[in-house]
Amino acid sequence: QVQLVESGGGLVQPGGSLRLSCAASTNIVNLSVMGWYRQTPGKQRESVATITDGGRTNYANSVKGRFTISRDNAKKTVYLQMNSLKPEDTAVYYCKGHSPIGSGTDYWGQGTQVTVSS
User: What are phi and psi of 87, to 5 degrees?
Assistant: First the structure.
């Protein structure tokens, strides 16, 4: 069982920055894809950014050029650097790790709140 714990959320003004961290309880090299997702009340959870074990990244159009995902396998941590934040970035941000072993398993963190407001 893999446990993921997010941190780094909070309240920030428009145009500000935050860095989210996702710490895993196990070696993340075993997780082929890790990603950040976000959800607001009444809406479906959406993908924000993903990164493969080979370092390939993918971003939602709404965050391209503003957000950067990275992973540090030695620290068992995935990061999401968020710059030029907008009020529409307000959401609960979740970390997900995908294990390809067997039929595949997705592991989710508990989420961290990001609020962008003046």
Answer: -55, -30
